[in-house]
Amino acid sequence: MTWKDAVGLALEGREEGYNFLYQQTYQKSYYVALKYMKQEEEAADVLQDAYIKAFQNLDQLQEPDKFPGWFSRIVATVSYTHLRAHETGRNL
Question: What are the C-alpha distances in Å from 25 to residues 50, 64, 85?
Answer without folding.
Answer: 11, 14, 25
